[in-house]
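User: Structure please.
Assistant: Input sequence and predicted structure:
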Amino acid sequence: MPLLLVAGLYALAFGLIKPAVPLFAVSIGASAFVIGAYASVGTAVNALLRPTSGRLSDRTNRQGVMLLGLAIAAVSVTSLLIVRLPWALLGVGAGVGAGAAAFWPSLKAGAVEALGGGERPAAALGVVSSSQFGASAVGQVAGGALLSGAGYRAVFGAAAVCLFGAMAVSGGLRHRPTGGGRETARDTAPVPNGTRASEQPADLTSPRSVTRARLLADGVTLFFLGVAVGGFLPFLPVYMRQVLHANVALIGVSLAVFSGANVLGGLSVDRVKTLSRGLLPAGAVVPVLLAVASGLLVAKGVSPLVGFVAAGALLAFSVTIIQVLVTAGLVGASSGGIARKIGLMDSSTLAGALCGPMVGAAAYASDPRWLFPVCAVSALAAAAVASAAPTLERMRTRSLTP
């Protein structure tokens, strides 16, 4: 699927620059505050603009909005070749966030529509997620090697080439007007009175209708996931060094294992059986519980390094499954507005990721050993909300049914 190539090139580009940007910032005299602000500004802009860009994608065409995001991202990364003032990095961060906000909802919605006519959203989103995590991991390894051998300009130049290549591939895709969401087999299915399902009036008691309570529950779930990931990843190298006494090579291997677990989770999500719409499968809850238990052992100084890496991999695997299933469940709950729904859910995750570092910093300042269990408990809270939401919605449906 060409869309997966576009997603891979995009993720590869930002994987390349991920290890380089903080070191480059230090080389031009940026303070720790500016480096943190670079990431925070990008995340905030990304979170704020995703629902709007998703709505624009649904109303116009996915390809145009996706190309706009790629162009903004390419210009932002290319500008790193000429940036010499530390504060200019904030503008780059804002551009990167705006580009991602325009790019990802359109690409994911296009993938959902392309695979099975929109009838297999979990499979489509899972494959996109795997492509994203896999390419990003490769990019980080390649970026580190390129940085040590050729310097910053080579890294930023290679990333820009990837983004312009993604633009070329995206520009060659066949244009599909969306008009509020491509019709699926479910939209065109006949109903007793002879009209299409998409022309029927909305039934608020239908299990496939999207309610505000459903949106809130799904948003809270993904927010907690964002806190879990955003609170842990920034401190991971220091945590492994100080708490687990791991060397630099083992830290790199651990990061690769976690990325591999993300990829495996994305590829496995369509095979996971759910008990009902949106209900989290036991196959995703159990790894979270195991990760929490192992994290508590780490806090008590019992868990060895191998146990921690295994727990982290289980957590990465289950977080990916939860995130994809929740978003796919919302996309499949009603026709139309696919990119807008994806944008809303992505914004919830990004909001959590923005708050996560503060939670992680508080846990780490209290006792570094409690960083992992605190973040794992946040993932467990996400699993609990995701599991309880369908039951509550079925209760509401029964109360509304005459």
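The radius of gyration is 21 Å.
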